[in-house]
Amino acid sequence: MLTLEQFRSNRNVLFWSLHAAGWGAYAITQYFGALLYEKPNSYAQVIVVAALSGFVLSMPMRFIYRRLWGRAPRSIFLGVLATCYITALALRTVINLAYKQFVEPDWQFKTLFELFGGAISTTYLLMCWSAFYFGIKYYESQQQQQEAVLKAVALAQESQLKMLRYQLNPHFLFNTLNAISTLILDNQNRTANHAITRLSEFLRYTLDQDPMKKVTLRQEIEALDLYLGTERLRFGERLRLEYAIEGPALEALVPSLLLQPLLENSLKYAVSPREQGGCVRIEGRARGSMLEVSVTDDGPGMQDRFSPNERRGVGLRNTRERLAVLYGENHRFAVLNSRPGLRIDMALPLETAGADEPGTEQPYPESTRARA
């Protein structure tokens, strides 16, 4: 049995269903009209012949109108008028002959015009059929155009998101390879080998992830740990990490690899330049209908990092643009000085993939909380 959506999408089924329903409604109204005007019982046979003849004779109109569709309005109007009148002549001939056969056998046609009698009123009926046909066809055309626009917008958004995500990968790869090169120059070959292994694991993960896909914040932190595998080898004790993520927030959905460029930004400006290193804190909490995520470091802050005319880093800029594409106005992204350091605040629509105990705060597992 066809569903409503399948019924709408199957144009042949839709046409024949409406075609049959229309002529069925014509037969019903004619029957009640015959009762109102006290027509003889034999007139019911004329009504049946008229409905069946209308059903058959009006079928070619669909194929004629297909050829007319897309032409100039004047050509369509004249074509519809001629088609309706010619069809009406044929239909009235059948109806009048049926009337003579079943109701008035003694009736004799004196002129050809009597055989075609009533063709004007039947033309009006067929014009209504035509208006209904073109109305549905125009509605379908508008729907198809709207769907095409929506698909084009969706494809454009998907392409933009992929471009933003893939722009981050070379940026991250360049920084990491520079770090590995430094390790080799310092004769830390074992550490460099470990860094290459962890780098390959992270790159494999990024290649497997669809930029359009959303993951839970728990999975995002696990992916972040793959990235941190190389950075821990590089910074050692200078890198300190803290997690403060509530239980419900761990099951909230976020764009995949959302945090990696933000953490990379903190490592570049808050940890790498300073001999004592630095601390990065990641927080997550569910507040009403929004998921709030923040990344905070204890570095020099924005004033020292960016001059007034300097554009922010690739990671921050791309993350901002990526969230704008995904959520439009329904999100918040702010970069603020936290004195000391920099704080990146994000608020996204809360989309959950599971349920946890509300109001509880779960530190991330010890394997990812360990300070390196």
Task: Give the tags.
372 residues; alpha+beta; Heat Shock Protein 90; 2 domains; 8 strands
Q: CATH H level of the largest domain: which superfamily? A: Histidine kinase-like ATPase, C-terminal domain
Order of helices and strands: HHHHHHHHEHEHEHEEHHEEEH
Q: Would you tell me which CATH topology of the largest domain applies?
A: Heat Shock Protein 90
| Overall tally of structural domains | 2
Task: Flag low-confidence runs.
Answer: 304-312, 355-372
- Percent in helix: 55-70%
CATH architecture of the largest domain: 2-Layer Sandwich
CATH class of the largest domain: Alpha Beta
Q: In a nutshell, what does this entry contain?
A:
With 372 residues, the protein is an alpha+beta fold. The protein is 63% helix and 13% strand.
Structure description:
With 372 residues, this protein is of the alpha+beta class. The chain has two domains: 114 residues, no CATH class; 218 residues, 2-Layer Sandwich (Heat Shock Protein 90). Strands 6-7-5-4-2-8 form a six-stranded mixed beta sheet. A two-stranded antiparallel sheet has the order 1-3. Strand 6 and strand 7 form a beta hairpin. It is rod-shaped. The C terminus is likely disordered.
Task: Outline the secondary-structure elements.
Layout: H1 4-9, H2 11-36, H3 43-57, H4 59-68, H5 73-102, H6 112-115, H7 119-185, H8 189-208, E1 214-216, H9 217-235, E2 239-246, H10 247-250, E3 253-255, H11 260-271, E4 278-287, E5 290-297, H12 302-305, H13 314-327, E6 332-337, E7 342-349, E8 361-362, H14 366-369
Parallel strand pairs: 2-4
Antiparallel strand pairs: 1-3, 2-8, 4-5, 5-7, 6-7
Helix pairs in contact: 2-3, 3-5, 4-5, 5-7, 7-8, 7-13, 8-9, 11-13
